[in-house]
Amino acid sequence: MNKLINSLWPGESHPLGATWDGEGVNFALFSEHAEKVELCLFDAKGRREVARIELKEQTDLVWHGYLPEARPGLLYGYRVHGPYDPQRGDRFNPHKLLLDPYAKSIIGPLRWSDAHFGYRLTSSREDLSYDRRDNAYGMPKSQVIDPAFTWGDDRRPKTPWHDTVIYELHVKGLTALQPKLPPWLRGTYAGLATAPVIEHLQRLGVTTVELMPVHTAVNDRYLAQQGLHNYWGYNSIGYFAPDMRYVANGGVSEFKTMVKTLHSAGIEVILDVVYNHTAEGNHLGPTLCFRGIDNAAYYRLAENPRYYIDYTGCGNTLNMMHPRVLQLIMDSLRYWALEMHVDGFRFDLASALARELHEVDRLGAFFDIIHQDPVLSQVKLIAEPWDLGEGGYQVGNFPVGWTEWNGKYRDAVRSYWKGEGGLIGELAYRLTGSSDLYERSGRRPYASINFVTAHDGFTLEDLVSYNEKHNEANGEDNRDGENHNLSWNCGTEGPTEDPAIKALRARQKRNLLATLLLSQGVPMLLAGDELGRSQQGNNNAYCQDNEISWMSWVLRPEDEELLAFVAQLIRIRKAHPLFRRRKFFVGKRGIGKRDIAWLNPNGREMSEEEWQHTFARCLGVYLAGGALDEQDAQGRRLTDDDFVLLLNAHHEPIPFTLPTAAWDTPWERLIDTADPTPGAATPRYEAASTYPLEARALVLLTARNPERHA
Which of helix, strand or coil describes residue 614? Predict the structure, then answer.
């Protein structure tokens, strides 16, 4: 180790982080206001600091040095010297070991103690003084890696947006209870890449998995004190390092192997990323990385710089107005796209990233940089288009090139199937790709990521089983979580053995899933919804790293039926371009346009007056396959069968008169959520005949196009 200390070379200021070049390691750390930076080296177990080396070279505010004898596997951290003056925004404290913001691997858990806090409380919580306790023993350590990996002929699936079906999952939650996996693979990246899991994804028919956060995160202290865990992982501290909680035995390479294996199965990988805030919390939070490296550069500070501007509800907001913070995020995104081969990103609380002063600016620097970047402009970009600040709800306002979680879709579909009247106009927009939100800015139907459930909120099973949240297990007296769930328990709260209620709940799940998968836009399924997964009414299970959140693979007959139903819907969607349009409908609500027509139960086109009826709960949609007006990848004109979609959220049956198909062929029933397991014979109905549309049911019928089936 003395040899390492004595052989420090000046090194280079680029790239940032610890870079192994085959002979040694270059270390580079940005800090605009630091006065001194020390590189700390640790033994192989990370318990003992064995060397402390001052990086004396500084170029363009980057402190750097090169150790020719250093090797991959070396554990390290930084101590950064400078003024401790919270009133001016400075919080330097060399007694705190800090993670490298560019660390590619972070080893070891965070062991909580008061030593992690850069202040010491004195007479009051606002009277904070400099803390001299050393926190190194309890800190995770940054690790030098060898990035070499044999990607072979790995090819991104490059599934077009209009063909995409997303499956949102938690790496551990999906596999923790998978009985076909050996225990050491459950809950890991390696487990996600095994045959039983991939076979399930392929049987279902999804094209893309969206992983909940896998950047290195830490468990909140107050959760640890209660014996709970930040299971979701929206508490990031390392934007380049995959979280080692999900590693079986392969380190960074295990994540790469997972991506390569999923790609081989034709499945894309999207990461849920949290660049809006970090795990360091508010002004009373711990000093783990950014706060101690350069607090005033990395965070948005309030008018009184002791405090943080908080658009996220998590205590702090990263300072997107600083060029080095923008660089950090862009470097992180490029690293995951180029080195880890991921296919895209879903940005948590993306509105916070767009704030240049206090307003959300959809043409801000963040978007400008991504759009001109030759790598990032070509991957899939999904915004969660809101944050918790004023004006943060920005559904429909993100730029071309971005897709969005469509919260208006979720709310409209939930409200409609709950039985609320007067929503058919709103529902019509959501079924057809939300042209009211996206068309005026030049975007396409696939700008809308449609979802009914997501990790945040009720599962599908709980959406039809609970009127109220039941979050007592979170230890906050049921005060946490959303109160406005737009859910309906179908007559009793929670589990029941009443056969009528169970049947109604099963039908409601089919209604919601069928609506989702037959809508224009990109459908997103929450993992486990296809199997009736319940969180026991918990709609904020972020801290439940247990059976409440994990997916059960022990399937009841009704679970098998639901899985088969969802797989059938996805097959229909994939087989028919009419449900995967790249352009908005021309007809919308108008009369005389043949690509779409809206029908009342008498089989006639809806009048303007009928759209306004507050009691209306029934709607028909005629989709003309011959008027598709789109081309395939080879420029050939696409055509499809005709379809009629009937929706009835009323509590009574409504006979529905069927229209005449363009091909003058009979209507064949494909889906009826009131009759999920029809016999082998496909029922047929002539034009102008009456379909017995049951209460709270969705029906899909098709008239075959003779040219398409010749």
Answer: coil
CA separation, residue 335 to residues 273, 293, 340 (Å): 13, 22, 7
Q: Which of 210, 384, 461, 694 is catalytic?
A: 384
Phi, psi of 168 (to 5 degrees): -85, 125
Contact predicate 364/292, CB 8 Å: no
Question: Tokens for 132?
Answer: 């001299």
Q: Rounded to the nearest 5°, which phi and psi values hold at 436?
A: -65, -25
pLDDT per residue over 439-472, tens digit each? 999 999 999 999 999 999 999 999 999 999 999 9
Predicted confidence (pLDDT) per residue in 374-419, tens digit: 999 999 999 999 888 888 889 998 999 999 999 999 999 999 999 9
Active-site entry in 348, 461, 529, 605:
348
φ, ψ for residue 344, nearest 5 deg: 170, 180
| Distance of alpha carbon 415 from alpha carbon 269, whole angstroms | 31
The one-letter code for the residue type at 382 is I
Count Cβ neighbours within 10 Å for each residue of 618-654 and write b for 16 or more, e otherwise: bbbbbbbbbbbeeeeeeeeebbbbbbbbbbbbbeeeb
Measured CA to CA, the distance from residue 72 to residue 52 in angstroms comes to 18
CB half-sphere exposure, 322, CA atoms < 13 A:
18
The continuous run of DSSP H or E covering 179 comes out as none
| 695 class by beta-carbon count within 10 Å (0-12 exposed, 13-18 middle, 19+ buried) | middle
CA dihedral 340, 341, 342, 344 (to 10 degrees): 120
Q: Looking up tokens 């997916």, which residue turns up?
A: 551
Determine the Cα–Cα distance for residues 491 and 504; give it in Å rounded to an integer.
Answer: 9
Backbone angles phi, psi at 547, to 5 degrees: -65, -20
Q: How many residues does this entry show for the chain? A: 710
The enclosing H or E element of 373 equals none
Q: Read off φ and ψ for residue 569, nearest 5 degrees.
A: -60, -45
Asked about 530 being catalytic, the answer comes back as no
Beta-carbon contacts of 388 under 8 Å, excluding residues fewer than 6 positions away, are 310, 311, 312, 313, 349
In 510-548, which positions are buried (b, 16+ CB within 10 angstroms) versus exposed (e)? bbbbbbbbbbbbbbbbbbbbbbbbbbbbbbbbbbbbeeb
Residue 560 makes CB contacts below 8 A (sequence gap 6+) with: none
CA atoms within 13 A on the CB side of 433: 26
Active site residue 348: yes
**455 and 405 Cβ atoms separated by less than 8 Å:** no
Instruction: Report the distance separating Cα 270 and Cα 596, nearest Å.
Output: 33
pLDDT by 10-residue block (mean), the chain, 710 residues: 74 98 97 98 96 97 97 98 96 98 97 93 68 96 97 96 98 98 97 98 98 97 95 98 95 97 98 97 97 98 96 94 95 98 96 73 77 95 89 89 97 97 96 96 96 98 98 96 96 97 98 98 98 98 98 95 97 97 77 78 94 93 92 90 97 96 90 79 89 97 87
What does the pLDDT look like over 692-702, one tens digit per residue?
999 999 999 99
CA 614 to chain centre: 35
Cβ 212 vs Cβ 455: under 8 Å: yes
